[in-house]
Amino acid sequence: MRLSVIDAGSHTVRLVVADAGDGVPLPVHTAKWKLRLSEQTGADGRIGEAATRQLVKAIRKAARTAERWGAPEPLAFATAVVRHAPDRTHVLRAVRAESGVRLCVLSGETEAELTFLAVRRWMGWKAGPIALFDIGGGSLEVAFGRGRTPDFAVSLPLGAVRLTRRFFGHDDPPSPDEILALRREVRHQLRDAGARIRWENPRTAVASSRTFQQLARLCGAAPGRHGPFAAREVRGKDLRRAIDRLAALPAARRSELPGISAPRAHQSLAGAVIGHTAMKVSGLDTLAVSPWALREGILLRHLEDGPGWWPDAVARPDTRDAPEPPTAPRPSAVVPLR
User: Which element (helix H / strand E) includes 161?
Assistant: First the structure.
């Protein structure tokens, strides 16, 4: 069986084509198109016509690439940059009309649930109760669970791009006061979720997402060329030192540091502060880094539960543009895991 996933995120549109004959999604082809949607959105979060045209073009190319690799219609989804856009409905309609791809918008809680599934499958049952942290461009997903599904999952407006734009808009590098203000915001938003993690006392704490992978490399983890099976982790004390290294440099020079890519250099400091504060608030010293995350969770769910779980459109366009969604937790838009 060959499947494909298109992920429209804050920075890129990514395609994964995978074979899953044994029930495990093994990638056979990956591709990405750099858009940096989060940098093109207006102050009100609108994506706008120019960025929408670029998104349509990238998704059309991704769909054609998937077809050339023998995959059926892709499972296509967008994350927080589209989910929070007031003109979300227009964007979804444009993608559908001009590319033929039905782009879905997952709720933040659904993203956390699917990422948790991927992490559980990667870490295995020996990991015991798992706490999960996933830093995206627009949101931070946190989950905890003992089994295949999380006992609780929450999405918070603590993405690395979002907080970079909000708190680091004046000085480059940011001042200590700006960094402190960002840290206070993360601590405030994470108060309840962090207390829950401390109370649960997980056996294993896991980080996923490209942000955490790059921070792990900066903190001394094995480089990507060592492959996905190399054990990688982030220790709180190392991340604290990484914050100092990142804060000493302007954004343009952070890519000189190990693991920090040029496209993500500007958000790397905020990502490090978010990650370190999340660990402190949750009482965690170390996070294991999982190479599997949301895209793999979608593929696994499709394999384990069949194609019926993926609706035609998770967020159906209506006759009006969508208002800014609430940041409070909402029920999952997808059929719940069982």
Answer: helix 160-167
